[in-house]
Design goal:
The protein contains 10 helices and 11 strands. It is an alpha/beta fold. A 6-stranded parallel β-sheet has the order 1-11-8-7-5-6. A 3-stranded parallel β-sheet has the order 3-2-4, with helices on both faces. A two-stranded antiparallel ribbon has the order 9-10. The structure holds NADPH dihydro-nicotinamide-adenine-dinucleotide phosphate.
């Protein structure tokens, strides 16, 4: 039976560390989340981020803009935040309404305040092996591995999924941690065989229960990034937990695994951005 990697507890520890470090600063780190439109899921995420940032002592603010906000109007808001010396972190909640070019918005954020780590300058820094601000979910996965005592060095790590938000940056982080990295995706031939070769298997595909216990090498570490809504309304991951837990050495649950780490890493990124900018 695999041991459970308790993301909730590990994230709570990280949040407490962030709060303790923030308490010693002569200023309050400022985080601003920009929400365009009224997407229900996005509103919940934004509220959770605001609460978590306030709880660690940050100066947290949410700017809510109408769904009809134009791209130039949003760019003007970002320009104002870039120039505001009290703002250390800027996060534009995605997805944006279709009339706004997401890439143009991400490029407009000052890379030094880009706490999502999506700006091309931060993406390039990670790709060149010199990470600055790193996307929150992949960073959370690396911290989970560290807290669980799993060293990627020399290990075969397979990442399922190649999105810019999770799969690609995670593969870069694993490579920087000296893992031998395979990136699998929807065009991969014999996904099960690729998975079976992995010492560390990370699923970030958005397909409920895709990874079966029979795809897992005995004793492997399984990190399930997936968050999917099952027909009965419960949240399930990309890994079939019931069969995987009997084979794996360690596994993250859904919920309570990677999810809580994402917001904790956002707080940590904000602190890093503040320290780098304010000295
Ligand atoms: P995307 O939809 O952007 O990317 C999914 C990736 O999975 C793509 O690279 C796709 O391949 C690949 N894929 C899809 N189906 C298959 C399949 N059947 N076999 C192999 N590969 C497949 O998703 P995200 O990366 O944004 O998110 C992935 C999951 O992680 C989702 O469940 C999401 O909800 C969750 N998530 C969780 C977060 C957290 O905080 N825990 C944060 C962000 C996401 P291709 O490129 O070929 O299309």
């Amino acid at each position: 039976m695999a041991r459970l990697i308790d993301g909730k507890a590990i994230a709570a520890t990280l949040r407490a560390e962030v709060a303790a470090r923030a308490a010693h600063l002569s200023y309050r780190p400022g985080l601003v989340v920009v929400l365009v439109g009224e997407d229900a899921a996005s509103s919940v995420y934004v509220r959770n981020k605001d609460r978590a940032a306030t709880a660690v002592g940050f100066d947290s603010r949410t700017i809510k803009l109408a769904a009809a906000t134009s791209e130039p109007e949003l760019l003007a808001v970002i320009e104002g935040l870039n120039n505001d010396q009290e703002v250390d972190g800027i996060l534009v909640q995605l997805p944006l309404p279709p009339h706004i070019a997401t890439e143009a918005i991400i490029r407009a954020i000052d890379p030094a305040k880009d706490v999502d780590g999506f700006h091309p300058e931060n993406v390039a820094a990670l790709a060149l092996g010199k990470p600055r601000l790193v996307p929150c979910t992949p960073r959370g996965v690396m911290l989970l591995l560290g807290a669980a005592g799993i060293d990627p060095r020399g290990a075969r790590a397979t990442v399922l999924g190649r999105s810019n938000i999770v799969g690609r940056p995670l593969a870069a982080l694993l490579l920087a941690a000296d893992a031998t990295v395979t990136i699998a995706h929807s065009r991969t031939r014999d996904l099960a065989a690729e998975c079976r070769r992995a010492d560390i298997l990370i699923a970030a595909v958005g397909r409920p229960g895709l990874v079966q216990g029979s795809w897992i090498a005995p004793g492997a570490t399984i990190i399930d990034v997936g968050i999917n809504r099952a027909p009965d309304g419960t949240l399930v991951g990309d890994v079939d937990f019931a069969s995987a837990i009997t084979v794996a050495g360690a596994i993250t649950p859904v919920p309570g695994g990677v999810g809580p780490m994402t917001i904790a890493c956002l707080l940590d990124n904000t602190l890093l951005a503040a320290a780098a900018r304010r000295g």
